[in-house]
Write a structure and sequence with these properties.
Structural class: mainly alpha
Largest sheet: 4 strands, mixed
Strand content: under 5%
Helix content: over 70%
Number of helices: 19
């Protein structure tokens, strides 16, 4: 099959994918070149801080550059292979062929839901297979080389199987709900589907920490002691009501570190990676939690929802309009769809519209990142205020950056497109200004 390149949908998709591929490669090369020139030198701002001078010696700076470079050299073939495969699947009509081939099985063809379910599941297999060798290489070559991965191949396989089964269950539920709404309410399914997707997101905030996360990791209540008492004091000071403080056995798989809050309402819980507790002092850990509490206290999640909830309905309405356009289906090779039977295939319209969105999303992604970075600054400031000092968060950020071998000073254009958080230098400068304003 040869696509009609005069079709507006084909043009948007092809130009969008080519532009995204080119821009990503340009940005990654700029970052790599900048790192080659500056990666072995400690930035001037960090030279002023004793903790930074201690943890970022020449060996550590070289290790950070080497780690980032190896990830980059793996990313190049991975990105190229993914781009070629994605374009080939579309240009050579894989999706309409697969949809028709599945329909040849009478027991599937008799049930519209099964037809759609198998199509959506099987259509993702080529990309998953293509990505597999890169994932294995990164996990067992790069991550192990730099002291992060503690995975055995057996554990990795078990995790993959668990992830597949969990995804399959939730995909089944969601696809069933979507097919039901599209068939029963063909004129206004967009309104109901947006509501269902929002409700599903909230339900997952409750279900994930209690039932899904424990499938992969063990969560143990934080032992009684000085740290637990300090955390409870911090929570009381900020008015945060938690259902518990848990330690996750992250080191079973990786030495990367993190801490996060999950759930909402009475189900909110605090999760600390066991690796994080080994890397930071109690006061530094409290500063990191103070940052997370800042997102809660400053109502960042609520503010995001105020924007995202209306956007969910707007986007779904746009997808609804696109799904009514016969040209959308025909442009991607689904020539058996016409105005008379389009109602039966609108879920394909959703998939194709999502593909169009994915092709151009890099253009609008910085807008979301700008808002995210602003909120990170605000949460940092809150932490310094509630903990009484900026020093502990500054040293915590430096240690975490060092332990995770994160890049110290990426080019501004790269961080503008790729970073949802401010860089380490930017966060330290902002925290130091907060400290000076208190004097």
């Amino acid at each position: 099959m040869v696509l009609n390149f005069s079709n507006i949908f084909v043009l948007i998709y092809v130009i969008g994918k080519v532009f995204t591929f080119a821009l990503n490669n340009i940005l990654e090369y700029i970052d790599y070149s900048f790192r080659k020139r500056n990666g072995g030198t400690l930035p001037k701002k960090l030279q002023e801080i004793e903790t930074a001078r201690t943890v970022f010696d020449k060996d550590k700076l070289k290790k950070i550059s080497d780690y980032e470079n190896e990830k980059y050299f793996l990313w190049i073939p991975k990105c190229t292979a993914g781009f070629i495969l994605t374009m080939a699947l579309v240009l050579f009509g894989f999706y309409p062929w697969l949809f028709s081939a599945i329909g040849n099985f009478s027991w599937i063809n008799e049930c519209g839901f099964l037809h759609v379910f198998f199509f959506l599941i099987l259509s993702g297999i080529p990309s998953s297979i293509a990505e597999l060798p890169f994932s294995i290489y990164k996990e067992f070559k790069i991550e192990k080389k730099y002291g992060f991965s503690n995975m055995s191949f057996k554990l990795w396989l078990i995790d993959q199987l668990k992830s597949f089964l969990v995804s399959l269950v939730f995909s089944f539920i969601l696809i069933f709900a979507i097919v039901f709404l599209l068939n029963k309410f063909p004129s206004f399914w967009w309104l109901l589907l947006a509501a269902v997707m929002i409700a599903f997101s909230f339900i997952m905030m409750i279900v994930y920490p209690k039932f899904i996360a424990p499938i992969f990791n063990k969560f143990s209540p934080l032992e009684d002691g000085e740290l637990k008492q300090k955390i409870h004091t911090l929570l009381k000071k900020t008015g945060f009501i938690s259902s518990g403080i848990f330690v996750m056995d992250a080191s079973k798989r990786s030495n990367h570190s993190n801490a996060y809050f999950s759930g909402f309402g009475k189900t909110k819980r605090i999760v600390l990676y066991d690796t994080l507790m080994k890397q930071l002092s109690d006061d530094e850990l409290l500063a990191v939690l103070g940052h997370e509490l800042g997102h809660y206290k400053l109502k960042h999640i609520v503010k995001r929802l105020v924007v995202l909830l209306p956007m969910e309905f707007i986007v779904m309405f746009i997808l609804f309009l696109l799904a009514q356009n016969v040209s959308l289906y025909n442009s991607f090779g689904f020539n058996f769809i016409n105005a008379g039977n389009i109602t039966n295939y609108q879920i394909l319209g959703l998939m194709l519209s999502s593909m169009l969105y994915e092709a151009v999303t890099i253009i609008i992604s910085p807008l979301s990142a700008i808002s995210s970075r602003r909120q990170e600054y605000q949460a940092d400031k809150f932490s310094s205020q509630v903990c009484g000092t900026s020093d502990n968060l500054i040293t915590a950020l430096i240690k975490l950056n060092s332990e995770n071998l994160s890049e110290l000073l990426p080019p501004k254009i790269y961080s503008f497109f790729m970073y949802s958080h401010p860089t380490l230098i930017e966060r330290i400068e902002a925290l130091q200004k907060t400290k000076e304003s208190k004097k």
